[in-house]
Every structure is written in structure tokens, then in C-alpha cells.
Protein 1
Amino acid sequence: MSDFPKGDLMAGKRGLIMGVANKNSIAWSIAQQLRAQGAELAFTYLNESMERRVRPLAESVDAPLILECDVTQDTQMDGAFATIAEKWGSLDFLVHSIAFTDRTELEGSFVEGTTRQNFKDTMDISAFSFVDAANRASKLMSEGGSMVTLTYLGSERTIPNYNVMGVAKAALEASTRYIARDLGPAGLRVNAISAGPIKTLAAAGISSGRHMFSFNRNASPLRQDTDPKGVAGAALYLLSDLGASCTGEVLHVDAGFHIVGMPDEEAMVD
Ligand code: NAD
């Protein structure tokens, strides 16, 4: 946490972090940045085997609530949000950093290789779960609030092997806009961060990952990998009062890769 700029931008705010798997998770960088700015954090984790890694991390940032919650299980979503309502009574922010697909469908042909069942499961876990969590969280945000989800450029452009996850990210970004529209009148802001490739458990599932990292690094205007701290800083902006007036936005934090139509020739020499 010492690496994250300290301050009091989040002092007095309480929020839920969904999607920490281990210390490399994007949600963990965001959590550390929010804590360094004074936020009080609750965490959810997928299942018992994830708990072993998540609990020590959550305890290291003094989290009072560490709850099991598989987003496909309504009873677990009911339980997690009921506990937050009971212990805290209200929420100020939500971080949704969850995605899943069958990794055998993250390679080769999208049109030939996508099954009905995995299409549905990917949409459910990677897109609908944000709609569901946002709806539940909004009921605890009577004083206003802010929500952030994590997306990727594969929603807007085709990226080799990203396949069905790109389609789910397109649904997630459209959902972000609709949720922002619905909840805006109540003073709730809802945004997405489109992060460049970062080495995490989820990214390890994408075949040709190495090529993806080097291509992004070489072609991006900044000629660097996306820094998780930059993503955490963007989340701090969107979740704190600094982000006032910003809603329904997809903020790219990817070393500028998304603006490049055609990379410079010399940039492509590794
Ligand atoms: P990660 O593997 O650390 O996080 C993914 C999380 O999703 C894990 O904590 C996992 O437990 C959780 N999850 C999966 N299925 C779940 C379920 N049914 N219920 C509850 N939780 C479930 O990887 P990450 O890269 O930090 O991914 C976080 C988010 O960032 C994802 O939405 C991902 O698509 C997005 N993202 C990642 C990158 C990248 O390059 N790593 C880039 C852009 C966006």
C-alpha cells in the first residue's frame, strides 16, 4: 500500500470491492489505492479456495467485511448485500472487477468455436453480474455514490482470441451507460475503465498473450505496459468527488493504445 499516493480523498467513504483473486488482481491495486486515501473496504471472493488468498490481503487493509459471493448464485448475492446492509447500512461505492469464460473458447475462430452455453455463462458472469450488483448496491446508496467496472478494448475492436469475452465486454459497456442513465437522477455515477493488458490470472487465459503484451507496448504512444497503478488512479478519480459530473463514461487507461490506427514502423521492432 506504501506505493499508492496517500491522502483523504476517500475518508468517510465505505465501498465494496468485488473481484480480488490474488495480489495481481486489478481490483487489489484499486483497493490499495482507495485504502491509502482513507476508504473503508468490504471484499467479496468467489469461493473457499479463493478465500485463502483474498482474506489475508483484505485483512492487510483492515477490511471489516470479507464475504463469499459467487455472482451466479442469487442466494450468495442476497447474503453478501444483506450483510453489508446489516453491518454498514449504506454504501458509497462499488468496484466490479469480475469476468469469466471457458478458456478453451479464448483461442481460434469466434464464429466456429463459441458454444451457446459458454456464451450465456460469459454474459452472465462478465456483464449481467454488474447490472445485478449495481442494482443491489444502489439500494444502499441513498446519499449518492459511484460505481466502476473493468472492461477491455476487445469490446470495440477485434482482438485475436478475445472472442466471446469481447462480446461480453460490449454488453458490459452498454450496460454501464444504461445503469448510469437510470441511476443518475438519484445522484449515482456509473463508469467503466478500459484497461490495457495487465498480467493477472484472467489475462493468463488468453492465448497469444505474450504477443498481445509486446504489441501493446510497442504500438502504444507511451511505449509501455499498462501500469495497474494508473488503473487504480483512474478508479480513485471516478470513485471520489474528483470525478463529479463524470458518468456513463468508458475511460481508457492503456498507455494510449486505443488511439492508434496504425503503429509506427520502428515501434514494431522488438
Ligand atoms: P483476476 O483473475 O485477478 O480477476 C477476475 C476475478 O473474477 C477473480 O477475482 C475471480 O474470482 C472473479 N470471478 C470469476 N467468476 C466469478 C464468479 N462467478 N463470481 C464471483 N467472482 C468471479 O483478473 P483481472 O485481470 O484483475 O480481471 C478483473 C477485471 O478486469 C475483469 O473484468 C477483466 O476482464 C478486466 N480487465 C483485465 C485486463 C487484463 O489485462 N488483466 C484488461 C482489461 C480489463
Note: The pocket of nicotinamide-adenine-dinucleotide is lined by residues 19-21, 25-27, 46, 50, 70-72, 97-100, 125, 150-152, 195, 197-198, 200-203 (CB under 6 Å).
Protein 2
Amino acid sequence: MSDAPRPRNFLAEIVEADLAAGRNGGRVVTRFPPEPNGYLHIGHSKSILLNFGLARAYGGRTHLRFDDTNPVTEDTEYVEAIQQDVRWLGGDWGGHLYFASDFFDRMYACAERLVGEGLAYVDTQSQDAIREQRGSFDRPGVNSPFRDRPAAENLDLLRRMKAGEFPDGAAVLRAKIDMSHPNVLMRDPLLYRVRHARHHRTGDAWCIYPMYDFAHPLEDACEGVTHSICTLEFESNRELYDWVLDHTGPWDPRPRQYEFARLALGYTVMSKRKLLRLVNERRVSGWDDPRMPTVAGMRRRGVTPEALRDFADLIGVAKNNSLVDIGKLEFAIRADLERRSPRAMAVVHPLAVSIENWPAGKVEELDLPWWPGEPERGGSRKVPFGGELFIERDDFALDPPKDWKRLAPGREVRLAGAYVIRCDDVVRGPGGEVRALRCTYDSASRTGEGATRRAGGTLHWVHAHLSVPAEVRMYDRLFAVEQPDAEEDFIAALNPGSLAVAKGARVEPALRDALPGSRYQFLRQG
Ligand code: ATP
Ligand code: MG
């Protein structure tokens, strides 16, 4: 037992009941089993937090296991990226890093054992024929003509499959269960197929690869996993999971599979196949584009692991699938950043302002707090004020609407942390466009000193020459509709305005030395 917080969900209840009953010798071993065919996304983070959180709370451990049974789609780039992401989320697997391919020999031994016991056979029919004979929910299947091959013949064929005597698709190993089983997955499921493909770890050692439903329970059992947690789509696979373990054991501990609802989030897609398409078609800058729902993308966007944990707690662990409002994720991220981001000033679209009555060449160093809303946190930085400034272009209107609180000809505003200024004159270009503003300041109006001087609103600003040029990228939701998956082609649902780049932005000089990955909230820019 540990002092980590007890999760409150139905899986925690199962674990507690198992511990209370003394099952598995008091052990709790979970695993996170990604297929290394893409980067992790926010759905995976839910599964990571759940698996690692459960084990930590009950004094157990969690394994990171790469489910690398499909040699064609897998890549070591993904293996590296996934480890980085799991670690970043706080997942610590200790020495328990595994690959399904570590167990290929043991899986194959189990296959030979099933063959020897008359529980598996080699089928040399075409894939189409096998599929056709499976039947359907309301139609029983048909036995393969090879179903009753003698065990010795099956063993010989299986060994020849392994030795490379069959081309891809020419033979499969099938479990011999029941072709009229009400669960279609139990109708003599495929255990091995021939795949002459190079594997990223085992190279050319194998040309037969185990199917998911055979491999997964054996991986769990070989590692000593007690609670094998997966998403609801695998509910009907559980029967086969149990069958495989029951006929290859005894296993101690004997793993059990439990299902929970996968996370589906509005305004995004989560299937790795679709995310890969976004990357390959250059719709985004990469797997870590800040608009991507990937862990790497969110990290680049400034999201913290704590925010993702808060989000996971907020939505909980359910037994029914549902679409989660992306507003909940955005809320968790905002609440977290609010607490940890000092405030600073940046002008995204600068408009020049000259203060005509400011002493020529004078620079006043204002001392402004990093946390204006929470002065007790302390800390401040110097912000230079002078006769040449920039304000936000949108904060000025020639012909302002009625309740305009910002700058306009003849109006006054306060510059945050500084003085009240009045706009006296507008400098126009040849086409009538606003080029610059001529203003005057009230030397007795400095923020925090003496009488509070009233003015329309408060604007952010930077010094014209002492501020630092910056490129500001403003990210919005990647998709324009809540359910891109429901569209005929999800690409058509992309939000064309998901990235706006301002190349001529200016930020206050204190940010000149900000480290990559540091977080600031720009005043009035949310
Ligand atoms: P995808 O469809 O995106 O490829 P996957 O389920 O095939 O996802 P895996 O790498 O096989 O991806 O998943 C690793 C683990 O993460 C599995 O245990 C799976 O149940 C879990 N997982 C994947 N997607 C989600 C999700 N949206 N919500 C919760 N858990 C998920
Ligand atoms: Mg998968």
C-alpha cells in the first residue's frame, strides 16, 4: 500500500476487492501497451494515468509494453517518442520495459502446445473462404475442411509455416473452438499468420506473427500482469482472452481483462491512422504541432502533465462511451496555466504611439509585478516606458462604437502599470490608413501613486525601441466541427483559421532571455 491518492472508479473497486480477497498474492500489476505505430494522444494519456495511478495507489507496478506484433507499421522513432511521453506524464515503469516480440518464442511454444492437444490447426484455405465460413451474428459458421487434420500433420505444417515455406496468406494457424459459437470471435479465430516482413526488433527471425487476440493475453501472462485494462471495444474479445489463458496455463498470477470507456473528444480526431495522415499531408507541422491532440503537441503548446491529470480526474472513468466536451479540456488547461504563468506584455499587431510631452530621450524603468492579481506571490521585472511606444492596432478606433473603452481621437486610456494618455492627433497614410498616433501623457497619473486618475480602459503596450521583435503564433482548434469523424472525409472539416502567425509582434524586453518552453500569459490576450 502507498500513500498515493486512492482513485475513485469501478476499476479501483475491483482492485480493492481482489486485494481484500487475497487474490494474486496481494500483487497489483498493470500495463500500458501501445502499438508503436504513431505518437501518443490524449486518449492514451487517460489510459496511462489510469494504469500507473491504480498501481501506484495500491503498492503495485506498471509495465510499459510495446505491442509490436505487426512488423509493417512499426517504427523505432515511435518507440522513443512514446517513452518520452509516458515519462513526461509521470509514468515510471522502473525496469519493466517490454516488447511483445520479447515473448515470440514463448508464444510459439504455446501454439505448438495447442496443436499437440488438438486445440489448434493449420488452415490452408484462402482468406476469403475463411472469412465467408465465419458466418455472422445470426448465421452460424461452417467448419473448415482442414479442421480435423491430425495433430502431427498440423505440427508439421506449423513448423513449415515458421520455416518460411508458405507465402503470405497461404496458411494460418487457427484455434479449434466452435464454429457456431454465439460470439463470432470464438469461431476458430486466427492465432498466427504468415508475414514475410522485417521486424524492427527481431529482424528476419520470424515470418509468422501472432494475432492480437492470441498475443495479448500471453504478453500479460508472461509479464505477470494481474489487471489488464483496455477499452470497451475489446469487451467481446475477453472470452477469447480467457480461452487462450485457460489452455496455455497454469499462470500465476492469472491476468484478467477489464474494459473502460475510451476517451472521445470533440473538435479533434484521435485515431493514429488519421493523425498520421495529417502529418504526412503536411496539414500540421508534425506530430508535435501544438494543434495536435498528441501528448507531444500539447507539451509544445505549454500544457502541463498536471493539467492532463486534472482533466482525467474531471471526466472520470466510465463504462459507457460518450463524446467529451473539448471545453472541459480547455478549462483544465486554462485553470492550470492561470496558476503558473506570470503575466507579461506583448503587442501582436503594433500601432506606433508617440508621447509628445515626454522628455526627449528619457526612459523610465517601471517596476511591474509578475503576478498583478496576486501581489503576495512577489516578483517583478523592469519594463521601460518612453516617448515612443506601441499599442495593439485593434485598441484604437477612428470612429469608435458607443461603449468603446479603448483609445480613439480625443479619448483617454491608461497604459497598464504606467500613465494615462490622451490621443490628440492621428497620422494617416496616403490611403487614409492609420499610421501612428500622437498623444500626451499626464505626469501625475502613474499607476499606484496618489489619487486614482480615471480613464476609459487599460491597454497593454511596449516600448518601441527597447521591446523585442517576436513571431507570435496563435492557435485555435484544429477542426471547425465537433465531430470530424462523422464527415465523409475528416480533412474537409479542418479549421482554416487554426493557426494565425503575426511576424511583426513585439514583446517586452524581460522576455528576451525566456527559455524555450517557458510560459507567460500576455496581458489582455487570454
Ligand atoms: P488508435 O486507434 O489511435 O491507433 P489504439 O487503441 O490502436 O489507438 P494502442 O497503441 O493500441 O492504440 O493503444 C494503447 C493503449 O491505449 C490501449 O490499452 C488502448 O486501450 C488505450 N487507448 C487508446 N486510445 C484510447 C482512448 N481514446 N481512450 C482511452 N484509452 C485509449
Ligand atoms: Mg491499436
Note: The longest strand covers residues 420-428.
